[in-house]
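Newbie here. two chains, one complex. Structure please?
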Amino acid sequence: MKKLHLLIASFLVLVTLNLNAQETVPTYQSEKFKSIEVNGGLGWNFSQTLSFAYQQNIKRCFAWIALTQLQFPINLSNQFSLESSKFFNWVQVAGIGGTLGNKRFNNSLYVVGGGRLYYSKLTGNHTIFHEPTLITNKLMPELGLLYNLKVGKKKFYFTSQIYIALYPFKNFIENPHTLSIGLGYKFKVKN
Amino acid sequence: MTQMNKIQNLHFLFYFIGLSFLFNSCTKEEIKPNQIKEFSIHSNNTGSDYTIWVVLPKEYNPYLKYESIYVLDADASYFRYDKIAKITEEQSSKYNKQNAFVIGISSKNNRERDFTPTPISDVGGGSENYTKFIELELIPKIESDYSVDTTAKSRVLIGHSYGGLLTCYFFTKHPNVFHNYLTLSPSLWYDNNLLFQYETDTRASNSAIDNLVFTGCGQLEEAIVLGAQEWNYRLSTFYPNCKLAYQKLKNRGHTTSAEENAETGLEFYYKNK
Protein backbone atom coordinates (compact mmCIF):
# COMPACT_ATOMS: atom_id res chain seq x y z
CA MET A 1 0.00 0.00 0.00
CA LYS A 2 2.92 2.30 0.77
CA LYS A 3 4.27 1.87 -2.78
CA LEU A 4 0.83 2.57 -4.27
CA HIS A 5 0.50 5.77 -2.26
CA LEU A 6 3.90 6.92 -3.45
CA LEU A 7 2.95 6.09 -7.02
CA ILE A 8 -0.24 8.11 -6.82
CA ALA A 9 1.55 11.03 -5.19
CA SER A 10 4.27 10.92 -7.88
CA PHE A 11 1.61 10.88 -10.62
CA LEU A 12 -0.12 13.92 -9.17
CA VAL A 13 3.14 15.81 -8.81
CA LEU A 14 4.15 14.98 -12.39
CA VAL A 15 0.80 16.20 -13.72
CA THR A 16 1.23 19.43 -11.78
CA LEU A 17 4.76 19.93 -13.09
CA ASN A 18 3.51 19.26 -16.61
CA LEU A 19 0.85 21.93 -16.23
CA ASN A 20 3.40 24.34 -14.87
CA ALA A 21 5.67 23.83 -17.85
CA GLN A 22 3.21 25.40 -20.28
CA GLU A 23 4.15 28.70 -21.86
CA THR A 24 0.92 30.63 -21.68
CA VAL A 25 -2.21 29.98 -19.67
CA PRO A 26 -4.67 31.03 -22.40
CA THR A 27 -3.28 28.21 -24.63
CA TYR A 28 -4.73 25.73 -22.15
CA GLN A 29 -8.13 27.25 -21.69
CA SER A 30 -10.52 24.57 -22.86
CA GLU A 31 -12.75 25.06 -25.86
CA LYS A 32 -16.45 24.62 -25.32
CA PHE A 33 -17.53 21.13 -26.33
CA LYS A 34 -20.33 18.59 -26.28
CA SER A 35 -19.33 15.16 -27.42
CA ILE A 36 -20.14 11.48 -27.40
CA GLU A 37 -17.50 8.74 -27.40
CA VAL A 38 -17.27 5.01 -27.90
CA ASN A 39 -14.22 3.30 -26.40
CA GLY A 40 -13.04 -0.27 -26.36
CA GLY A 41 -10.17 -1.68 -24.38
CA LEU A 42 -8.79 -3.81 -21.59
CA GLY A 43 -9.69 -4.03 -17.99
CA TRP A 44 -7.98 -5.50 -14.95
CA ASN A 45 -7.26 -9.22 -15.43
CA PHE A 46 -7.42 -8.66 -19.19
CA SER A 47 -11.19 -8.37 -19.40
CA GLN A 48 -12.68 -6.68 -22.46
CA THR A 49 -14.47 -3.39 -21.99
CA LEU A 50 -16.83 -1.27 -24.02
CA SER A 51 -17.85 2.20 -22.90
CA PHE A 52 -20.07 5.04 -24.03
CA ALA A 53 -19.57 8.56 -22.74
CA TYR A 54 -21.31 11.89 -23.10
CA GLN A 55 -19.29 14.95 -22.09
CA GLN A 56 -20.14 18.60 -21.93
CA ASN A 57 -18.10 21.64 -21.08
CA ILE A 58 -19.93 23.54 -18.32
CA LYS A 59 -17.82 26.64 -17.97
CA ARG A 60 -14.32 27.12 -19.39
CA CYS A 61 -12.24 24.69 -17.28
CA PHE A 62 -15.08 22.53 -15.96
CA ALA A 63 -17.01 19.78 -17.63
CA TRP A 64 -19.36 16.98 -16.73
CA ILE A 65 -19.54 13.42 -17.98
CA ALA A 66 -22.01 10.53 -18.05
CA LEU A 67 -20.41 7.13 -18.63
CA THR A 68 -21.74 3.62 -19.28
CA GLN A 69 -19.14 0.86 -19.18
CA LEU A 70 -19.57 -2.84 -19.84
CA GLN A 71 -16.93 -5.45 -18.93
CA PHE A 72 -16.71 -9.05 -20.07
CA PRO A 73 -13.73 -11.00 -18.75
CA ILE A 74 -11.90 -13.79 -20.51
CA ASN A 75 -13.30 -17.30 -20.21
CA LEU A 76 -12.28 -18.60 -16.80
CA SER A 77 -13.47 -22.18 -17.31
CA ASN A 78 -10.18 -23.72 -18.50
CA GLN A 79 -8.01 -21.80 -16.07
CA PHE A 80 -9.99 -22.82 -12.98
CA SER A 81 -11.21 -26.33 -13.89
CA LEU A 82 -14.80 -25.16 -14.27
CA GLU A 83 -17.58 -26.61 -16.38
CA SER A 84 -18.77 -23.11 -17.28
CA SER A 85 -18.31 -19.49 -16.29
CA LYS A 86 -20.21 -16.27 -16.95
CA PHE A 87 -19.20 -12.83 -15.85
CA PHE A 88 -20.58 -9.36 -16.45
CA ASN A 89 -19.95 -5.88 -15.06
CA TRP A 90 -22.12 -2.87 -15.83
CA VAL A 91 -20.97 0.51 -14.56
CA GLN A 92 -23.17 3.61 -14.70
CA VAL A 93 -21.59 6.82 -13.42
CA ALA A 94 -21.66 10.57 -13.81
CA GLY A 95 -19.33 13.23 -12.55
CA ILE A 96 -17.61 16.55 -12.92
CA GLY A 97 -14.05 17.52 -13.45
CA GLY A 98 -11.46 19.91 -14.74
CA THR A 99 -10.60 20.21 -18.38
CA LEU A 100 -7.67 21.89 -20.08
CA GLY A 101 -6.70 22.02 -23.70
CA ASN A 102 -6.86 23.76 -27.02
CA LYS A 103 -8.46 23.10 -30.38
CA ARG A 104 -6.38 19.98 -30.99
CA PHE A 105 -5.86 18.42 -27.55
CA ASN A 106 -8.11 18.24 -24.53
CA ASN A 107 -7.26 16.69 -21.16
CA SER A 108 -10.02 16.04 -18.68
CA LEU A 109 -9.91 14.57 -15.21
CA TYR A 110 -13.25 13.68 -13.64
CA VAL A 111 -14.42 12.41 -10.29
CA VAL A 112 -17.36 10.14 -11.00
CA GLY A 113 -19.90 8.32 -8.89
CA GLY A 114 -22.82 6.02 -9.46
CA GLY A 115 -23.38 2.28 -9.33
CA ARG A 116 -21.97 -1.04 -10.53
CA LEU A 117 -23.88 -4.23 -11.27
CA TYR A 118 -21.54 -7.18 -10.70
CA TYR A 119 -22.65 -10.61 -11.86
CA SER A 120 -20.88 -13.91 -12.11
CA LYS A 121 -21.99 -17.53 -12.38
CA LEU A 122 -19.48 -20.35 -12.05
CA THR A 123 -20.25 -24.05 -12.33
CA GLY A 124 -17.82 -26.68 -11.10
CA ASN A 125 -17.70 -30.43 -11.62
CA HIS A 126 -20.98 -31.95 -10.40
CA THR A 127 -19.26 -35.10 -9.20
CA ILE A 128 -16.90 -33.17 -6.91
CA PHE A 129 -18.87 -30.22 -5.50
CA HIS A 130 -21.88 -30.69 -3.26
CA GLU A 131 -22.97 -27.21 -4.47
CA PRO A 132 -21.43 -26.93 -7.94
CA THR A 133 -22.91 -23.54 -8.88
CA LEU A 134 -21.86 -20.22 -7.36
CA ILE A 135 -23.73 -17.08 -8.32
CA THR A 136 -22.55 -13.64 -7.26
CA ASN A 137 -25.01 -10.87 -8.03
CA LYS A 138 -24.26 -7.50 -6.43
CA LEU A 139 -25.36 -3.95 -6.91
CA MET A 140 -22.68 -1.79 -5.38
CA PRO A 141 -21.86 1.91 -5.21
CA GLU A 142 -19.19 3.10 -7.61
CA LEU A 143 -16.62 5.84 -7.16
CA GLY A 144 -13.84 6.51 -9.60
CA LEU A 145 -11.39 8.79 -11.32
CA LEU A 146 -11.59 9.13 -15.08
CA TYR A 147 -8.91 10.65 -17.27
CA ASN A 148 -9.96 11.43 -20.82
CA LEU A 149 -7.74 12.62 -23.65
CA LYS A 150 -9.18 13.93 -26.91
CA VAL A 151 -6.97 14.36 -29.97
CA GLY A 152 -8.29 16.03 -33.09
CA LYS A 153 -9.51 19.34 -34.44
CA LYS A 154 -12.49 18.15 -36.46
CA LYS A 155 -15.92 16.75 -35.60
CA PHE A 156 -14.59 13.20 -35.32
CA TYR A 157 -11.57 12.70 -33.07
CA PHE A 158 -9.48 10.04 -31.34
CA THR A 159 -9.87 9.46 -27.65
CA SER A 160 -8.20 7.49 -24.91
CA GLN A 161 -9.46 6.90 -21.43
CA ILE A 162 -8.16 5.60 -18.11
CA TYR A 163 -10.71 4.66 -15.48
CA ILE A 164 -9.57 4.05 -11.90
CA ALA A 165 -12.20 2.36 -9.76
CA LEU A 166 -11.71 3.60 -6.20
CA TYR A 167 -14.40 1.55 -4.47
CA PRO A 168 -14.13 -0.84 -2.61
CA PHE A 169 -11.23 1.12 -1.13
CA LYS A 170 -9.57 -1.86 0.57
CA ASN A 171 -9.70 -3.82 -2.67
CA PHE A 172 -8.13 -1.01 -4.72
CA ILE A 173 -5.28 -2.96 -6.30
CA GLU A 174 -7.73 -5.59 -7.58
CA ASN A 175 -10.56 -3.25 -8.58
CA PRO A 176 -11.61 -3.38 -12.27
CA HIS A 177 -9.59 -0.42 -13.61
CA THR A 178 -9.69 0.00 -17.38
CA LEU A 179 -7.68 1.47 -20.22
CA SER A 180 -9.40 2.07 -23.53
CA ILE A 181 -9.21 3.94 -26.81
CA GLY A 182 -11.84 4.94 -29.30
CA LEU A 183 -13.56 7.56 -31.35
CA GLY A 184 -15.61 10.59 -30.45
CA TYR A 185 -17.93 13.04 -32.17
CA LYS A 186 -18.18 16.72 -31.26
CA PHE A 187 -21.53 18.45 -31.59
CA LYS A 188 -21.75 22.00 -32.86
CA VAL A 189 -21.56 24.43 -29.93
CA LYS A 190 -22.20 28.18 -29.97
CA ASN A 191 -19.16 30.06 -28.62
CA MET B 1 -10.82 35.09 -10.14
CA THR B 2 -8.25 35.24 -12.95
CA GLN B 3 -7.25 32.27 -15.07
CA MET B 4 -3.81 32.22 -13.41
CA ASN B 5 -5.40 32.02 -9.95
CA LYS B 6 -7.58 29.11 -11.05
CA ILE B 7 -4.57 27.20 -12.33
CA GLN B 8 -2.67 27.90 -9.12
CA ASN B 9 -5.61 26.66 -7.06
CA LEU B 10 -5.62 23.46 -9.10
CA HIS B 11 -1.89 23.03 -8.39
CA PHE B 12 -2.42 23.47 -4.66
CA LEU B 13 -5.21 20.89 -4.78
CA PHE B 14 -2.91 18.37 -6.49
CA TYR B 15 -0.12 18.98 -3.94
CA PHE B 16 -2.55 18.59 -1.05
CA ILE B 17 -3.91 15.30 -2.38
CA GLY B 18 -0.38 14.05 -3.04
CA LEU B 19 0.81 14.98 0.45
CA SER B 20 -2.19 13.38 2.12
CA PHE B 21 -1.30 10.08 0.42
CA LEU B 22 2.30 10.39 1.63
CA PHE B 23 1.21 10.98 5.23
CA ASN B 24 -1.10 7.97 5.03
CA SER B 25 1.90 5.86 4.08
CA CYS B 26 3.20 6.08 7.65
CA THR B 27 2.80 2.68 9.33
CA LYS B 28 2.19 1.81 12.95
CA GLU B 29 4.84 0.28 15.18
CA GLU B 30 6.31 -2.90 13.70
CA ILE B 31 8.36 -5.83 14.96
CA LYS B 32 11.74 -4.76 16.38
CA PRO B 33 14.70 -5.68 14.13
CA ASN B 34 16.49 -7.53 16.97
CA GLN B 35 13.53 -9.96 17.15
CA ILE B 36 14.16 -11.11 13.58
CA LYS B 37 16.78 -13.74 12.72
CA GLU B 38 17.50 -14.57 9.10
CA PHE B 39 19.38 -17.50 7.59
CA SER B 40 19.55 -19.53 4.41
CA ILE B 41 18.96 -23.29 4.25
CA HIS B 42 19.66 -25.71 1.42
CA SER B 43 17.21 -28.55 0.92
CA ASN B 44 18.49 -31.91 -0.27
CA ASN B 45 14.90 -32.90 -1.01
CA THR B 46 14.07 -30.05 -3.39
CA GLY B 47 17.60 -29.08 -4.40
CA SER B 48 16.84 -25.39 -3.71
CA ASP B 49 17.93 -22.78 -1.21
CA TYR B 50 15.39 -20.95 0.94
CA THR B 51 15.68 -17.80 3.02
CA ILE B 52 14.13 -18.30 6.43
CA TRP B 53 13.11 -15.54 8.84
CA VAL B 54 12.55 -16.45 12.46
CA VAL B 55 10.66 -13.86 14.50
CA LEU B 56 11.26 -14.43 18.20
CA PRO B 57 8.33 -14.07 20.57
CA LYS B 58 8.17 -10.77 22.44
CA GLU B 59 10.25 -11.04 25.66
CA TYR B 60 11.61 -14.39 24.52
CA ASN B 61 12.64 -16.66 27.40
CA PRO B 62 14.85 -19.59 26.27
CA TYR B 63 13.78 -21.64 29.31
CA LEU B 64 10.17 -21.76 28.11
CA LYS B 65 8.79 -23.78 25.19
CA TYR B 66 6.87 -21.88 22.52
CA GLU B 67 4.50 -22.78 19.73
CA SER B 68 5.67 -22.23 16.14
CA ILE B 69 3.77 -20.68 13.25
CA TYR B 70 5.13 -21.48 9.79
CA VAL B 71 4.26 -18.98 7.06
CA LEU B 72 4.53 -19.87 3.37
CA ASP B 73 5.14 -17.06 0.82
CA ALA B 74 6.61 -15.07 3.69
CA ASP B 75 8.17 -12.50 1.38
CA ALA B 76 5.03 -11.68 -0.62
CA SER B 77 4.32 -7.93 -0.51
CA TYR B 78 0.74 -8.49 0.67
CA PHE B 79 1.56 -11.29 3.12
CA ARG B 80 4.90 -10.71 4.82
CA TYR B 81 6.20 -12.69 7.80
CA ASP B 82 6.65 -9.55 9.93
CA LYS B 83 3.00 -8.56 9.44
CA ILE B 84 1.96 -12.08 10.48
CA ALA B 85 4.28 -11.83 13.49
CA LYS B 86 2.71 -8.53 14.51
CA ILE B 87 -0.80 -9.98 14.22
CA THR B 88 0.33 -13.03 16.25
CA GLU B 89 1.65 -10.73 18.97
CA GLU B 90 -1.63 -8.81 19.09
CA GLN B 91 -3.89 -11.87 19.12
CA SER B 92 -1.89 -13.78 21.74
CA SER B 93 -1.95 -10.70 23.94
CA LYS B 94 -5.70 -10.22 23.38
CA TYR B 95 -6.46 -13.76 24.58
CA ASN B 96 -3.79 -13.73 27.28
CA LYS B 97 -1.93 -16.60 25.66
CA GLN B 98 1.78 -17.11 25.22
CA ASN B 99 3.25 -15.55 22.09
CA ALA B 100 4.73 -17.85 19.44
CA PHE B 101 7.68 -18.13 17.09
CA VAL B 102 6.83 -17.08 13.55
CA ILE B 103 8.92 -18.81 10.88
CA GLY B 104 8.67 -17.29 7.43
CA ILE B 105 9.75 -19.32 4.40
CA SER B 106 10.69 -17.45 1.24
CA SER B 107 9.14 -18.53 -2.04
CA LYS B 108 10.77 -16.29 -4.63
CA ASN B 109 12.04 -19.29 -6.58
CA ASN B 110 10.14 -22.39 -7.70
CA ARG B 111 6.92 -21.55 -5.90
CA GLU B 112 4.77 -23.30 -8.46
CA ARG B 113 6.96 -26.40 -8.30
CA ASP B 114 7.06 -26.56 -4.51
CA PHE B 115 3.38 -25.93 -3.74
CA THR B 116 1.65 -28.11 -6.34
CA PRO B 117 1.18 -31.88 -6.13
CA THR B 118 1.34 -32.72 -9.85
CA PRO B 119 3.01 -31.23 -12.93
CA ILE B 120 0.96 -29.37 -15.54
CA SER B 121 2.77 -28.53 -18.78
CA ASP B 122 6.14 -29.45 -17.24
CA VAL B 123 5.63 -27.07 -14.32
CA GLY B 124 4.79 -28.13 -10.77
CA GLY B 125 4.59 -31.42 -8.98
CA GLY B 126 7.06 -30.80 -6.14
CA SER B 127 4.72 -30.85 -3.10
CA GLU B 128 5.98 -34.17 -1.80
CA ASN B 129 9.63 -33.07 -1.86
CA TYR B 130 8.72 -29.74 -0.32
CA THR B 131 6.79 -31.35 2.53
CA LYS B 132 9.89 -33.48 3.21
CA PHE B 133 11.98 -30.32 3.26
CA ILE B 134 9.69 -28.77 5.88
CA GLU B 135 9.20 -31.93 7.94
CA LEU B 136 12.69 -33.43 7.82
CA GLU B 137 15.00 -30.44 7.31
CA LEU B 138 13.47 -27.13 8.37
CA ILE B 139 11.46 -28.14 11.44
CA PRO B 140 14.35 -30.10 13.02
CA LYS B 141 16.67 -27.11 12.46
CA ILE B 142 14.22 -24.71 14.08
CA GLU B 143 13.68 -27.07 16.99
CA SER B 144 17.40 -27.52 17.57
CA ASP B 145 18.22 -23.79 17.42
CA TYR B 146 15.29 -22.33 19.34
CA SER B 147 13.19 -23.18 22.33
CA VAL B 148 10.09 -24.44 20.51
CA ASP B 149 7.61 -27.12 21.47
CA THR B 150 8.36 -30.20 19.34
CA THR B 151 4.86 -31.65 19.22
CA ALA B 152 2.68 -31.39 16.10
CA LYS B 153 -0.08 -29.95 18.28
CA SER B 154 2.03 -26.84 18.79
CA ARG B 155 2.63 -26.17 15.09
CA VAL B 156 0.59 -23.92 12.81
CA LEU B 157 0.87 -23.73 9.01
CA ILE B 158 -0.35 -20.64 7.15
CA GLY B 159 -0.63 -20.70 3.36
CA HIS B 160 -2.29 -18.43 0.77
CA SER B 161 -3.26 -19.29 -2.81
CA TYR B 162 -0.90 -22.10 -3.92
CA GLY B 163 0.29 -22.02 -0.32
CA GLY B 164 -3.30 -22.67 0.74
CA LEU B 165 -3.32 -25.66 -1.60
CA LEU B 166 -0.22 -26.96 0.17
CA THR B 167 -1.88 -26.70 3.60
CA CYS B 168 -4.66 -28.94 2.25
CA TYR B 169 -1.97 -31.32 0.92
CA PHE B 170 -0.44 -31.52 4.41
CA PHE B 171 -3.89 -32.11 5.93
CA THR B 172 -4.64 -35.04 3.63
CA LYS B 173 -1.25 -36.63 2.96
CA HIS B 174 0.87 -35.64 5.98
CA PRO B 175 -1.57 -34.95 8.83
CA ASN B 176 0.99 -35.65 11.56
CA VAL B 177 3.28 -32.70 10.84
CA PHE B 178 0.98 -29.79 11.69
CA HIS B 179 -2.10 -29.68 13.90
CA ASN B 180 -3.39 -26.23 13.00
CA TYR B 181 -3.99 -24.80 9.54
CA LEU B 182 -4.86 -21.38 8.18
CA THR B 183 -5.94 -22.16 4.62
CA LEU B 184 -6.30 -18.83 2.83
CA SER B 185 -7.74 -18.48 -0.70
CA PRO B 186 -6.62 -22.03 -1.54
CA SER B 187 -6.08 -22.90 -5.21
CA LEU B 188 -8.19 -26.04 -4.95
CA TRP B 189 -9.07 -25.76 -8.67
CA TYR B 190 -5.55 -27.04 -9.43
CA ASP B 191 -5.32 -30.00 -11.80
CA ASN B 192 -9.08 -30.58 -12.03
CA ASN B 193 -9.64 -30.23 -8.29
CA LEU B 194 -7.16 -33.02 -7.51
CA LEU B 195 -6.97 -32.19 -3.77
CA PHE B 196 -10.59 -33.25 -3.35
CA GLN B 197 -9.66 -36.66 -4.74
CA TYR B 198 -6.84 -36.86 -2.18
CA GLU B 199 -9.30 -35.95 0.57
CA THR B 200 -11.69 -38.69 -0.54
CA ASP B 201 -8.84 -41.23 -0.69
CA THR B 202 -7.49 -40.42 2.79
CA ARG B 203 -10.80 -39.73 4.53
CA ALA B 204 -11.13 -43.08 6.21
CA SER B 205 -7.68 -42.95 7.81
CA ASN B 206 -7.93 -39.24 8.74
CA SER B 207 -11.52 -38.99 9.96
CA ALA B 208 -10.59 -39.14 13.65
CA ILE B 209 -8.10 -36.28 13.59
CA ASP B 210 -8.88 -33.27 15.75
CA ASN B 211 -7.07 -30.50 13.90
CA LEU B 212 -7.93 -26.83 13.88
CA VAL B 213 -8.63 -25.48 10.40
CA PHE B 214 -9.54 -21.94 9.40
CA THR B 215 -10.53 -21.47 5.76
CA GLY B 216 -10.73 -17.94 4.39
CA CYS B 217 -11.31 -16.31 1.00
CA GLY B 218 -12.55 -13.10 -0.64
CA GLN B 219 -16.02 -12.67 -2.13
CA LEU B 220 -14.65 -11.37 -5.43
CA GLU B 221 -12.41 -14.40 -6.19
CA GLU B 222 -15.31 -16.62 -7.12
CA ALA B 223 -13.32 -19.56 -8.54
CA ILE B 224 -11.45 -19.78 -5.23
CA VAL B 225 -14.68 -19.39 -3.20
CA LEU B 226 -16.15 -22.43 -4.95
CA GLY B 227 -13.22 -24.58 -3.79
CA ALA B 228 -12.95 -23.06 -0.32
CA GLN B 229 -16.60 -23.61 0.53
CA GLU B 230 -16.41 -27.22 -0.71
CA TRP B 231 -13.29 -27.78 1.44
CA ASN B 232 -15.04 -26.39 4.50
CA TYR B 233 -18.14 -28.49 3.73
CA ARG B 234 -16.10 -31.71 3.57
CA LEU B 235 -14.23 -30.96 6.78
CA SER B 236 -17.43 -30.15 8.68
CA THR B 237 -19.21 -33.25 7.32
CA PHE B 238 -16.52 -35.92 7.55
CA TYR B 239 -14.18 -34.75 10.35
CA PRO B 240 -16.36 -34.39 13.45
CA ASN B 241 -13.46 -33.81 15.85
CA CYS B 242 -11.94 -30.88 13.99
CA LYS B 243 -12.40 -27.30 15.09
CA LEU B 244 -13.42 -25.35 12.02
CA ALA B 245 -14.14 -21.82 10.90
CA TYR B 246 -14.86 -20.30 7.49
CA GLN B 247 -14.84 -16.69 6.38
CA LYS B 248 -15.67 -15.11 3.03
CA LEU B 249 -14.70 -11.43 3.15
CA LYS B 250 -17.12 -9.05 1.46
CA ASN B 251 -15.78 -6.93 -1.43
CA ARG B 252 -12.30 -8.46 -1.31
CA GLY B 253 -10.28 -10.21 -3.99
CA HIS B 254 -7.42 -12.69 -3.99
CA THR B 255 -4.56 -10.69 -2.48
CA THR B 256 -6.64 -8.07 -0.70
CA SER B 257 -8.31 -10.71 1.49
CA ALA B 258 -5.07 -12.37 2.64
CA GLU B 259 -4.01 -10.27 5.61
CA GLU B 260 -7.48 -9.79 7.05
CA ASN B 261 -8.23 -13.51 6.77
CA ALA B 262 -4.88 -14.31 8.41
CA GLU B 263 -5.85 -12.05 11.30
CA THR B 264 -9.23 -13.73 11.73
CA GLY B 265 -7.59 -17.14 11.45
CA LEU B 266 -5.00 -16.37 14.11
CA GLU B 267 -7.71 -15.02 16.38
CA PHE B 268 -9.62 -18.29 15.88
CA TYR B 269 -6.46 -20.22 16.73
CA TYR B 270 -5.72 -18.31 19.92
CA LYS B 271 -9.35 -18.41 21.03
CA ASN B 272 -9.49 -22.19 20.65
CA LYS B 273 -6.03 -23.47 21.51
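Moderator note: Chain A touches chain B at residues 1-3, 5-6, 8-10, 12-13, 15-16, 19-20, 25-26, 28-29, 61, 76, 79-82, 85, 98, 120, 122, 124-125, 128-132, 134, 136, 140, 168, 170-174 (CB under 8 Å). Chain A has one domain: 28-186. Thread marked as resolved.
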